[in-house]
Write a structure and sequence with these properties.
Two copies of one chain form a homodimer. By secondary structure, chain A is α+β, with helices and mostly antiparallel strands. Helix content of chain A is about 30%, strand content about 25%. Chain A contains eight helices and 14 strands. A seven-stranded mixed sheet of chain A has the order 9-11-8-12-10-13-14. At the A-B interface, helix 1, strand 1, strand 2, strand 5 and helix 3 of A face helix 1, strand 1, strand 2, strand 5 and helix 3 of B.
Chain lengths: ~350, ~350
């Protein structure tokens, strides 16, 4: 037996696997942030948006500040307790505008439909879009519909875009929070994610809970009326839950955040579902609540304004922004210990919105 | 043998098939118009847009007229001679705004990506979006990315939305054309559709031609500078080709249209491809030309302005708007006969844009 010729063992093609998009790249967690920050935004070159990535971008026309936001919805199943892909698309876009203190002026809706999709279901989704838009007081001014062959899409995807006008005297930004700010939360967490997961997997929790999907712009209007520029940062904790929202604000505002675990409002069915599935409620998606960083001397007024609205009735203070450990979010547990609340790395609940 | 009991022959469930979405519902032809007009828009209820459906919707903020348009792109293959899904998305949205005489202010881009899609291809598409946006002079201000599991989408879909500001002194509308108007066309037809089809099917025509995808807003700016309000109607003849564009304007403006066949600029490779495939070049998609209806006394000036721009260098007059047979488009053939140029009913070239 002769020794093998080392040259013959050399692979002619590099063995490194082609880099591919993973489910986690759409998670709203750290992989998402990397895809956006390392791939998508740099590739845009000079056409890239300036500054930190926000729920909506702000631009000025004449002397009016406008905001614009776009969101793709791929939720599965399309219909679930408390909502469907249509209402979700409208609320999600209205809420992204609201997080920049912008009230919606116009929405657009694009559908990508798989051949063979039931027309009755498409009609039902479109009616849900219409009802949600009416309730939010914003017209759907235009749209687009594309049909792809069987197997080229999973039923229906919806992409909504909204344009809004910013409230005068308010400029909340993910980069605007300051040490000392009170961290407020407008309502219970975890309902949307656990409901959709339960509906998809047939777990039965959605008999007790439903998605919290709803528009939040009127809540923001009330908060800004009460707090003005003291409302430093707003974010709706969708994909990635309050963990992602708090970490993004901590990162962009260069602050630490300390959250008190026992002050987090987690409904009992959400708690039970998360126990069963090994999920942290702080990392589960919401579609109808918001987190606010408010200057401490105005926090009580803003909290009172939130509680005066139906969608903020259960608003609570959950923590404080600090000057230590910028970019880090910690949770103080019931027994007095502290643990870091990290952003999810990858995908916990695919196709949750 | 006994006679069958008629009651036993009654089917317990209705035999009528469930209505389903067909590929043709995304064609840009008559089935598309029915889906939008009979299903999607009525379902919106009070949130529905007023008036005829246009390439972009117009709304007013303060004393500024803005336009907004959204488009879903599902083209297959993603890369083809002359462009890709990224440049197509930017140009398509810029052009829809331009058809309402609006110059682009801001774009958004949403990606729906299939798990396993090559990151290099995503980077290439994002770079193409960036390059096209830079060339058009408009920033991509925000976006969204969702990932769905393998088999739940075909690689990549892109949805772009644009907001633009209308040029003062211009208000083109699909409902604005009048009998007597000159019908102008900015360049050769059929290149995009035949290129994509050739790339998909490996027909080889795309060695000779390429997609005409390009932005048309500066062409429109020049036309409006020359013709002002005499530029009555503009449409870019994408899905469904000039046949759909002309029929939509004829319908919405209650006019007849007569087109002279020999004046239609059909490049030889497009002609050859259409002959082989049994297509009418007038029904094939374009992504870089426009049709204009212009008051007759200003048509020569507008045509000269079009020819002064690279993207309008081959602009021609192709016909006239008439007062007879409102809603009908006829073609005068080389031998002097006339035939009706209909909108496509269903899908001729699926996933062409």
């Amino acid at each position: 037996m002769t020794a093998p010729d080392p040259a013959a063992l050399t692979c002619p093609a590099p063995l490194r696997e082609v880099e591919r998009v993973l489910l986690g790249h759409g998670s709203g967690g750290r992989l998402s942030a990397e895809l956006i920050g390392d791939v998508l935004v740099p590739a845009l070159g000079r056409a890239a948006p300036p500054g930190p990535l926000e729920d909506a971008a702000v631009f000025t026309v004449g002397d009016t500040d406008l905001a614009i936001s776009t969101d793709a919805y791929v939720v599965s199943p399309l219909f679930f307790a408390g909502g469907d892909i249509g209402s979700l698309a409208v609320h999600g876009t209205v809420n992204d505008l609201a997080m920049r203190a912008a009230m919606p002026l116009a929405l657009t809706v694009a559908y990508v439909v798989e051949e063979g999709f039931a027309l009755a279901d498409l009609r039902r989704v479109a009616a849900s879009v219409g009802a949600a838009a009416c309730a939010a007081g914003v017209p759907v001014v235009t749209g687009d519909t594309k049909v792809v062959g069987r197997g080229a899409a999973d039923g229906l995807f919806v992409v909504s875009t909204g344009v809004g006008r910013r409230l005068p005297g308010a400029a909340p930004s993910a980069a605007g929070a300051a040490a000392g700010d009170a961290v407020l939360l407008s309502g219970p967490i975890g309902c949307h994610g656990t409901t959709v997961l339960s509906a998809r997997e047939g777990l039965g929790f959605d008999a007790e809970i439903g998605s919290d999907t709803r528009p939040l712009h009127r809540l923001v209007e009330a908060m800004v009326a009460a707090g003005g520029t003291a409302v430093h940062a707003l974010r709706d904790p969708t994909r990635g839950g309050i963990a992602s929202a708090l970490n993004e604000i901590a990162r962009d505002s260069h602050i630490g955040v300390e959250v008190v675990e026992r002050d987090l409002p987690v409904p009992e069915p959400v708690h039970a579902a998360c126990e069963l599935l090994g999920l942290d409620p702080a990392q589960v998606a919401n579609e109808g609540c918001l987190i606010a960083f408010v200057a401490p001397d105005r926090a009580d007024e803003v909290l009172a304004a939130m509680r005066s609205r139906p969608e903020g009735r259960e608003a609570v203070r959950i923590g404080t922004a600090t000057g230590v450990d910028p970019g880090r979010v910690v949770i103080r547990t019931g027994v007095g210990s502290r643990r870091v609340l990290d952003m999810l790395v990858g995908e916990q609940l695919p196709r949750i919105c």
